[in-house]
Amino acid sequence: MNRIITILFSLFLFSCARDKIVYEFYPAFITPIHYTIDIEKSILSQNSKQLKIEGHIQGSNNLINEEYQIDRKVLNTFLERIESVKLDSSIQHNREVLDGISFRFSKINQWNDSISLISTSPNRQEKYLKDYQILDAFFALAHSTIKNNNKGQSLTENIQDYFHYTLPIKRVSNNPIEYRVAGRISGCRDGNEALISLLDSLPNNEPIIFDIRNGSFAPCLTELLEEFEQKKRIYYYGIFELNQIDLDIETLEDELSEAEKDNSNGLVGGIRRQLKELRKDRKRIIAESKLRPNSFRTKHELRKTIANIGYNK
């Protein structure tokens, strides 16, 4: 029986070897991102897009255009999960929401025929089961593939933040132990049982690193974090607000360039004002960033400090 399953899956992989899978994300306020999975080449492409309608420009075509090699085992697992969804015809799930996100998933074969699922801000309910099966498979592949590229990771995490997921803290390294925080951890001690459980599970006798370049903890959680910092060797690096402002500035600069081409005076003035405010905010954040003894701007600075106090792996 196992042999039959293996043969059938192998035939499935062969049949779709020249196919591609495309995810298009259109979030409110931030840059749209398209991801293309080339099955034959095991390549994930990440491309930002700019939307233009009369009187409005959103996003940047130049914010990111990257390709990543996908581990074949990761790709095979992804394809198994997509095949299990059994999307045999195109589906559209529309909802009326404010400040949400729309996405389009497409399976495109070698003849350019496609089957797609289009959805707007789906909830984790039975009606949207296929939506989240498709999303879960994608984010698992993306987080396993987009590494050592903070911009690529941040843009993907910002997209994922529009959907319904659990505590956005992911272990990314075992030596030393490192976690990446994606987005804002909101709330206070009450209601953050998952965070408390994670902190409580951390070892006491070795450094624990939190990458907060694209994440932050609510002020209400400061007391909780300090409590665990007294018992454990916890360190942080990165400045979340600075990371987000840099993405916004880069996007607005591209929007300004496009608005100036069209001589859209109303847009040009508005974008210039936004850029001026963001650049001012950036200087303020750098000037006011009073880092605690266990917080650092870069991972390199953090690792040097850890080495100097007698821990170096």
From TrEMBL:
PROSITE patterns tied to this protein: PROKAR_LIPOPROTEIN
Name of protein: Lipoprotein
Protein's organism: Cellulophaga tyrosinoxydans
Lineage: Bacteria, Pseudomonadati, Bacteroidota, Flavobacteriia, Flavobacteriales
